[in-house]
Amino acid sequence: MGERLAIEADRIAAVLLADGNWHPVEPSSFEIGTYQFKAGDRTVLGGGAASRLSELGATWRNPAGDEWFACPLSSILAVRYTTRSHPTKNAVATAANPSGTGPVHA
């Protein structure tokens, strides 16, 4: 069996979604967990509760810090991450293309 594809979530710099755009990620804000819809403290619908709702989801904040994004984990086509512990706009690298323009994981 080949080597594992280990991607450190705190180093993810951008996420590629089905809209074809790379969405930048604020350093260390990317998280994976059970996907839920909440209304205050009440869970309206939890991941896996409905047959068409993915159980795992991802969330992250944009670098401007004014928006949070959330989606089913299956909606992420690729992630771009940096080899440094704290990503910067100019330090993005990928396994396929060190210039940061290609996907790391598809």
Layout of strands and helices, then pairs:
Blueprint: E1 12-16, E2 22-24, E3 31-34, E4 36-39, E5 42-46, E6 56-61, E7 68-72, E8 78-82, E9 92-93
Brief rundown of the structure:
The protein is mainly β and 106 residues long. Helix content is 0%, strand content 37%.
Walk me through what this model shows.
- The chain has strands spanning 12-16, 22-24, 31-34, 36-39, 42-46, 56-61, 68-72, 78-82, 92-93.
- The chain is mainly beta and 106 residues long.
- Residues 87-106 have low confidence and may be disordered.
- The strands form three sheets. Strands 2-1-8-9 form a four-stranded antiparallel beta sheet, with no helix packed on it. Strands 3-6-7 form a three-stranded antiparallel beta sheet, with no helix packed on it.
- The chain is 0% helix and 37% strand.
- It is globular.
Helix content: under 10%
Beta strand count: 9
Strand count, sense and barrel status of the largest sheet are: 4 strands, antiparallel
Query: Radius of gyration over alpha carbons?
Result: 15 Å
How large a portion of the residues is in β-strands, by DSSP E? 35-45%
Instruction: Give the quaternary arrangement of the chains.
Output: single chain
Structural class: mainly beta
State the low-pLDDT regions, or none: 87-106
Order of helices and strands: EEEEEEEEE
How many angstroms separate the termini? 19 Å
Total helices: the number is: 0
The mean pLDDT is 76
Taking strands numbered 1, 2, ... along the chain, how are they ordered across the largest sheet? Answer: 2-1-8-9
Overall spatial form: globular
